Amino acid sequence: MKLFKKLWEKIVINQYISAGLQWGDATSYLPIMGEAVGYDKMEKRLYFWERKYQELGYRCVDLDIWVSAGGYSRDYEPYLRVRK
Questions:
Q1: Which of 68, 65, 69, 25 is nearest to 43 (CA)?
Q2: Number of domains into which the chain is organized
Q3: Residue 14 counted as domain residue
């Protein structure tokens, strides 16, 4: 059972990072190009994985960090796996 928990945690974190970076990149273009196609789906995906990430006991990465990381390559690693 412990192996399943570790695997689930790894999946959640990877999906959360992927969703955060994708959403952050799309959000960084909002002022210039407007809303991207599928932006609502990206936002829903981010919020879904954000909830799962919180359920693991971690503090969520600030949305501004995702915008900076996804759109401008800011480092986001120090903000991951921070316990509540």
A1: 25
A2: 1
A3: yes
pLDDT digits (tens, 9 = 90+) for 53-75: 999 999 999 999 999 999 899 99
DSSP 3-28: HHHHHHHHHHHHHHHHHHHHHHHHHH
Question: Which residues have CB under 8 Å from 62's CB, separation 6+?
Answer: 79
User: Does residue 6 sit within a domain?
Assistant: yes
- Residue 84 located in a structural domain: no
8-state DSSP, 36: P
Full-model pTM: 0.92
Cα–Cα separations (whole angstroms), residue 1 to 4, 6, 12, 22, 38: 5, 9, 17, 32, 37
Largest CA distance in the chain: 48
Provide the 8-state DSSP code for 79. G
| Domain ranges, residue 63 | 2-79
